[in-house]
């Protein structure tokens, strides 16, 4: 018994550290790029940490008021030392430039590698999520979640590795140097640095993050609404509902702006608080240095060292508040993307699943029970059915009686909760999904075409098929006629989802696809909207050709199309209430099929 448990990932709260770990694990997978980045950052920062030492010594040299007499050679020695310090400062500056260049080049490669890897993985996961997940997710919102998350990785990498990592290094480095040089001052600085770190983390996680999360949820809602309205533009137009949709977007955008402003407001407060704290840190440290000098416990060189060091720290920490907010914003932006990785795929291949081998195409449903995850009542309870190999079977009955559901279960788009579905005696739960679906050609009610050429669309199941095979499939599907009349023939782009083709043309392209894949089992979900009679004839003719020597299930809405099939199953509330040929079923005037046929012939005059 399998569970369909892949719920769309909405509102799942991941911890800050979970998201950070997600990125860091991927950094480590690119050790050379990471080493180049961190090496460069380390070198440049080290050069900066050493700068106050040299500057302090330089000031010490030039502030020696009683210069030794030239005869003693002391002046020359002082000048020599001062010039050495000047050269040292130049060298440190150059090391800083080289280190930064190396880190920028390293991080560019690292970020792009991680972004590509996450994009690939996210797409692979989304593609494999259950049909239910897709039915419950807005395409626009999913696209937004993924793209926003990918770019957040770039920002996060830059902020953490190029900005915050050197800042931490400077804080720790200067504190250590000061602890050695002037232990009391070093201790004060250490305490203030620890307090600063605690304050920054608290502000990021507790103060700003919750509001940023809400802002992102509204951003996704906005993406979903845009995607939905644009996808359903034909419906919007037909009801003249453009204004209604615009008002809807306007109201969602207003809430998004409110929530986002609040999040930015808190971000600004947080940054201001951190900036004020660093100012306080500077005043305290310089004040203490001056006090020490006054008491004779420190020389001008020491004061110059503290001054330069504090300016250095101030320079590094000036934007730390913004950066911490940026990290937290990036983490929030990635939460929904990382959430996709925490969502279980719906239908999975069983352990040791083998490819399905179809010899005849016999189908059996054995005591099947099935309920959609979002429904409370099952559609099928202990449902059993045998379909002989090579037979052409129509599934008819009222709307919602479970015909399409049966075809979905046969493709294992959902797992049954009880019982088994067998093809040539093999339980489809134990074969690979890919092999199963490759053996079943589907001509859906509303075939979806990619915005690619007609040839590519026909060859979707057999991308290596030669042009002759594609054209032959199109001929068999009665699609060749209309395709060759198009200006670019088989190279015509069909528009998003195939909007540039008529319903009948799209169906014939889908039939051509089925011819090319040459699958032994065919499911034909008849379009509910009636085609014009010429188009209908062409589709029927193509279907009749496709049906030979295959097991065929036709979900039929127009009963005239099923008369000649081998078997007709009449569905009602997830049960088969009649089973026979057109002739046998019509022989029973009280029967459901007879009633449906009479009803339809009355409707169609
Ligand atoms: N993804 C889904 N999630 C939840 N319920 C669903 C889903 N798809 C279909 N249903 C419900 O399952 C029932 C059977 O639907 P199904 O599509 O199998 O009917 P059908 O006989 O093919 O109808 P039609 O002739 O209108 O295509 C309906 O009540 C429908 O609302």
TrEMBL record:
Q: Where is the ABC transmembrane type-1 domain?
A: 43-329
Query: What is this entry's stated membrane topology?
Result: Multi-pass membrane protein
Q: Extract the Gene3D superfamilies matched here.
A: ABC transporter type 1, transmembrane domain, P-loop containing nucleotide triphosphate hydrolases
Query: What SMART domains does this protein map onto?
Result: AAA
Q: InterPro entries, per this entry?
A: AAA+_ATPase, ABC1_TM_dom, ABC1_TM_sf, ABC_transporter-like_ATP-bd, ABC_transporter-like_CS, P-loop_NTPase, Type_1_exporter
Location of the protein in the cell = Cell membrane
ABC transporter domain boundaries? 363-598
Bilayer-crossing regions: 77-99, 160-179, 185-205
Cited Pfam families: ABC_membrane (PF00664), ABC_tran (PF00005)
| GO molecular function list | ATP binding
Q: Which UniProt keywords apply?
A: ATP-binding, Membrane, Nucleotide-binding, Transmembrane, Transmembrane helix
Primary localisation category: membrane
PANTHER family in the cross-refs = ATP-BINDING CASSETTE SUB-FAMILY B (PTHR24221), ATP-BINDING CASSETTE SUB-FAMILY B MEMBER 6 (PTHR24221:SF654)
Q: What is this protein called?
A: ABC transporter ATP-binding protein/permease
Q: Which organism is it from?
A: Bombella saccharophila
């Amino acid at each position: 018994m399998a569970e369909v448990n892949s719920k769309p990932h909405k509102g799942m709260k991941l911890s800050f550290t979970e998201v950070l770990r997600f990125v860091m694990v991927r950094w480590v997978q690119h050790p050379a790029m990471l080493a180049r980045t961190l090496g460069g950052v380390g070198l440049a920062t080290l050069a900066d940490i050493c700068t106050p030492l040299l500057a302090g010594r330089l000031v010490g040299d030039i502030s020696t008021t009683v210069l030794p007499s030239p005869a003693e050679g002391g002046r020359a020695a002082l000048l020599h030392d001062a010039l050495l310090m000047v050269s040292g400062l130049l060298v440190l500056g150059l090391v800083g430039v080289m280190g930064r260049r190396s880190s920028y080049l390293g991080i560019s490669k690292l970020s792009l590698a991680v972004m590509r890897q996450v994009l690939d993985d996210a797409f692979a996961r989304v593609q494999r999520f259950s049909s239910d997940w897709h039915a419950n997710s807005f395409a626009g919102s999913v696209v937004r979640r993924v793209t926003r998350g990918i770019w957040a990785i770039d920002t996060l990498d830059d902020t953490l590795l190029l900005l915050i990592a050197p800042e931490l290094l400077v804080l720790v480095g200067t504190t250590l140097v000061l602890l050695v040089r002037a232990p009391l001052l070093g201790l004060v600085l250490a305490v203030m640095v620890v307090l600063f770190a605690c304050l920054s983390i608290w502000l990021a996680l507790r103060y700003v993050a919750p509001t940023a999360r809400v802002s992102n949820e509204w951003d996704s809602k906005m993406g979903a609404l845009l995607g939905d309205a644009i996808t359903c533009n034909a419906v919007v137009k037909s009801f003249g509902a453009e204004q209604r949709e615009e008002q809807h977007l306007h109201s969602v955008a207003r809430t998004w702006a409110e929530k986002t402003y609040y999040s930015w407001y808190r971000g600004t407060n947080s940054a201001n608080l951190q900036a004020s704290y660093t100012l306080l840190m500077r005043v305290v440290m310089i004040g203490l240095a001056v006090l020490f000098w006054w008491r004779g416990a420190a020389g001008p060189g020491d004061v110059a060292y503290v001054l330069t060091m504090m300016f250095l720290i101030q320079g590094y920490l000036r934007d730390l508040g913004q950066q911490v907010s940026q990290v937290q914003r990036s983490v929030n932006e990635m939460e929904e993307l990382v959430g996709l990785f925490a969502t279980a795929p719906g239908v999975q291949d069983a352990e040791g699943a083998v490819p399905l081998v179809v010899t005849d195409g016999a189908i059996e449903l054995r005591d099947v029970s099935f309920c959609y995850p979002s429904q409370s009542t099952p559609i099928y309870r202990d449902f059993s059915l045998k379909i002989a190999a090579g037979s052409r079977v129509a599934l008819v009955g009222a709307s919602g009686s479970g015909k399409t559901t049966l075809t979905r279960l046969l493709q294992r788009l959902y797992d049954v909760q009880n019982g088994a579905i067998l093809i040539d005696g093999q339980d489809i739960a134990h074969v690979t999904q890919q092999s199963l679906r490759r053996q079943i050609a589907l001509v859906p009610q509303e075939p979806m075409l990619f915005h690619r050429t007609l040839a590519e669309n026909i060859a979707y199941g057999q991308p290596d098929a030669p042009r002759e095979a594609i054209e032959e499939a199109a001929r068999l599907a009665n699609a060749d006629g209309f395709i060759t009349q198009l200006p670019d023939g088989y190279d015509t782009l069909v528009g998003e989802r195939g909007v540039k083709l008529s319903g009948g043309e799209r169906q014939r392209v889908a039939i051509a696809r089925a011819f090319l894949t040459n699958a032994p089992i065919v499911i034909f979900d008849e379009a509910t909207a009636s085609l014009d009679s010429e188009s209908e004839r062409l589709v029927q003719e193509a279907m009749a050709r496709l049906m030979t020597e295959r097991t065929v299930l036709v979900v039929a809405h127009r009963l005239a199309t099923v008369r000649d099939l081998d078997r007709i199953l009449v569905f009602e509330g997830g049960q088969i209430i009649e089973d026979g040929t057109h002739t046998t079923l019509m022989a029973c005037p009280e029967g459901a099929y007879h009633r449906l046929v009479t009803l339809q012939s009355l409707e169609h005059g």
